[in-house]
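Usage

Read records sequentially. Each one opens with the input sequence:
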Amino acid sequence: MDRTTAKLLLNSLYGRLGMKPYQDNIEIVNSLRAEDILSKFIVKEQYNLTNNLEFIRYENKPIFGFEELYGKDEYINFMLDCDSKNISVNQSLPSAIAITAYARMYMFKIIYRLIDLGIEIFYMDTDSMTVNKAIPEDLIGYNLGLFKLEHEIKHGYFISPKLYAIKTVDGKTIVKAKGIGSKLDFNSFETLIKNQSIIKAQERWFKDPQNAIINIKNINMNISSINLKRKQIMINNKLNYTLPLKISK
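and closes with the structure output:
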């Protein structure tokens, strides 16, 4: 329980600090009020619920050109009114950015050290990495910032961030495929490693406030090894590794 609580606090902290400073307003209003909101606020969603009732979600921000339409005095009064009604959220965007940035800096510091020791790195994420041999003992432990051995891998495919599959020496198969869930099996990664795409149907839920229902649809997802952030190196028609992109002027 202590471990679960500590992990939840660590993983939730930067997300909480990175929330929007103000929440959107959500109202069910008559048509006249909806027109008034549309004429002054930035509206994100709007649906007709009945002949005279509308669902509307909007920001406490003026539309573009508000001052030109209504005049400077009305603009000042509008902004003061918005500030008084804003529902603030305790957040700190600089802190959220710093947490993830320092985590990345720390990981690269470790990676450069491992590379100097001749250790090959197959994959890395925010707080983990896959390597081909044991890492130094001083990097292993239970304190914050240290690593532990999760799996010993017998066979693995690492296609792109959040898209990989491994078989462990104790017979476990672990597949991670962001956005597609458990639709991919281990053998599918042999197709991806050859730079071929896979089409899989994925269930998606779509809200329909006007009719107060949720529509469930199967959407075809195109899964491929294409990585727009890295240059892919193919050897014997298989994805072998990637390199940083170099952009020339």
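Summary fields computed downstream for this record:
- Residues 93-116 form the longest helix (24 residues).
- Residues 17-85 form one domain.
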